[in-house]
Amino acid sequence: MEPVEGSYFDGQTARRHPALAEPSPDGTALRLTLVETGDRFDLPLASLRRGGEQVAGSGQISLAFHAPGEDEQQRDPARLVLPLGELTDWITAHAPALHRRDVPRRTWIRLAKAGAFATVALCALIFVIIPGLSRILADMVTPEQEADIGRRVLGQIEYVLAHGTDKDLTCRSKAGQKALEHLRDRLAESGMVTTPIELRVWDHSMINAFAAPGGQVVLLRGFLEAADSPDEVAAVLAHEIGHVEAGDPLREAFRTAGSAGILSLVFGDLTGGAAAALVADSVLSSTYSRSAEEQADVFALAMLRAAAISPKGFAEFFERVSRLEGAGLPEFMSSHPETATRRARATEAQPYDANPALDAGDWAALRAICG
Amino acid sequence: MTDLNPPSYTAVSYTGTKTEIFRLALVTGLLSIVTLGIYRFWAKTRMRQHIWGATRVGQDGFEYTGTGLEKLIGFLIALVVLAVYLAVVNLGFFALGLRFVSRPTNDAEVVAQLGFIYANLFALLPLIYFAQYRAMRYRLARTRFRGIRFGMESAAAGYVWRALLLTLITALSLGLLYPLMSFRLDKYMTDRAWYGDARFEQSGRWTALYRYMIPFAAGVVVMFGGIALGAITKGGTLVTVLIFTGVATFYFGLIYYPIRAAAYLTSHRVLGGQIRFTANPSVWRIIGILIGGGIAITVIALITFGLPAWLFGQTLRTGGISQLSGPLGFGVALGIYLVGLVFFSALALAWITQPLLCHVLGTITVLNIEATDHIHQRAADKGADAEGFADALDVGAAF
């Protein structure tokens, strides 16, 4: 094979050195002769790497040489540029590690450390620090401020449920509103409601009910339709009032505000849209912690007992809904205590005399509140 | 003595093709989706390797030596810092903002409330400027030409406070001092950039940039002139023509300024006191590329991706929905959305970015490149966070 003229850059200066390249006699190295000085050296084929991307049409390739050290690619700074041809074909065929990406020593350890550090720090932030700070900050909010936040949060959720329109979803049939008030008063008989509760029904088919800051509780039409008895509605309502009494919705608003953006930081721009969708979704199926859910359950059962409403609806409703729902768990189902646990909790309590949560007329009126 | 010789002129060229960049963007983009975004560090690295390699000065190409692994590590560290900062800032502003949410009763309270909303945005600015400088430093530290490293001094803090101050000044001047900001910030970076042991220097004057604002300013004047005339004469053809001309000139000015300002800055850069550059991109050519590329992308996207997506939507609407609601439907929709996004950005790279690179880089000339013969190698830069901050904040360049 004839020697091929190429350019050698020695990695010391930017000066181009004309060089002749050819296979060494034993075929294990690339022999380089510098034209200016006549210096000759052999580069073992195993040390050859591709320097930079081969772009079609450039007619040449750049070669680099493996050299362990500080370099990010573990290469000597020198480069050899050769025109494409018989010699470069020979190199491509015989250099065993031409495309190898050499990793600097300790890189994998550094990656493992950075990964562990990031995981621990983010988990601590999301599950301990932000909830803790939210608790402290939520306690500093005045009732007027909380009512205002509640209105804004409800406005946002209503906007989403109305498919991005300003439509007013609140159902306002006279008899239905009366029935709703009766239900609220019936639960208030327990004497356990210390915050004013603002209760309303929205005309939406989703089986859901949720509490927002400022004592706002919303039942969706789909939920009323799925319920078999007023006792079931009362049980879910008592659970939501439990969240209100514990101050969960406001803390949750702080937690969401504090965590905003962290998810999209992790996943980057590519899934930015996905993260936004997830966040919008999490407002609806807002997940309180498991302990908050259990406390709301305990509160609800005590409330039902004090108001002389049967706890049977409590277990039955959750059980039926869990069978019915394949996906999109409603708020009172997500991060839920197991249905079995709930049922046990509801049935193992001492039996007591109970009256229906609403009479037949009110129950019919409530179910027809959306017309 | 040597000054008597005319300087040599060496043309810069971009040799990449649409096919190569499209294939690369599509493959790396799909890999990024499949790996839940982890591959994006390698995707960016491979894209840079490609574009650097396709950019030549005379016959010598650039080389990008960054690695995906170091970017991932840098990102993980930056992520924690940013997450803590975001959490504290978000919670703090949410709590402070509450003091003002109860309906404002006078103008001062309205201003205070608005102030808080924007203060929240402003809180990220220092980080964004920091990330921009560090990203530029990393890119230069991983760029080589003829085996010699580029580099940038570690001076992000100085950049951050200057950028914040200049942003404030620009805002207070209602944008009139924008050329001062773009010149000073560019000069700050250029004056700290090196090729081997030779320093770059930004010469020229910031006031020289004003002439490139003329179309923009003329557009504004004509537009408001038309509106004022319309208020007096209650309409008429002349008003319509004036407003239309004004708006068109305004948009032309929006494209004209950054192109000509960048050309001016490039033409006033000096490397090692001896090597100069000229750049002469054509604004009309660039507008042509933007419009032509936009049309090409729309047509291709409609034919290859829009149609199947539309058919899929129709299937959902006409009864198929029962099998595809819930998480499965969400997953399928998300998948289609993400693949569409990757496809679209690959098209944009091939039909807009590639021709733009080809044109803009092709107008650059290097004067007196022989002087690089005496430029020596510089020490390796560890790359610090490998632009992890820019990746996390997504403020880095497209590639």
Automatic annotation (TrEMBL), chain A:
Keywords: Hydrolase, Membrane, Metal-binding, Metalloprotease, Protease, Transmembrane, Transmembrane helix, Zinc. Signal peptide: none annotated. Residues 1-26, 329-353 are annotated as: Disordered. The chain crosses the membrane at residues 114-133. InterPro entries: DUF7092, Mito/Outer_Membr_Metalloprot, Peptidase_M48. Its cofactor is Zn(2+). Residues 184-348 form the Peptidase M48 domain. It comes from the Bacteria. Pfam families: DUF7092 (PF23368), Peptidase_M48 (PF01435). The keyword Membrane applies. Residues 4-53 form the DUF7092 domain. Binds 1 zinc ion per subunit. Belongs to the peptidase M48 family. This is M48 family metallopeptidase.
UniProtKB/TrEMBL annotation, chain B:
Keywords: Membrane, Transmembrane, Transmembrane helix. Coiled coil: none annotated. Signal peptide: none annotated. Pfam families: DUF898. InterPro entries: DUF898 (IPR010295). The chain crosses the membrane at residues 21-42, 72-98, 110-131, 159-180, 209-232, 238-259, 286-310, 330-352. This is DUF898 family protein.
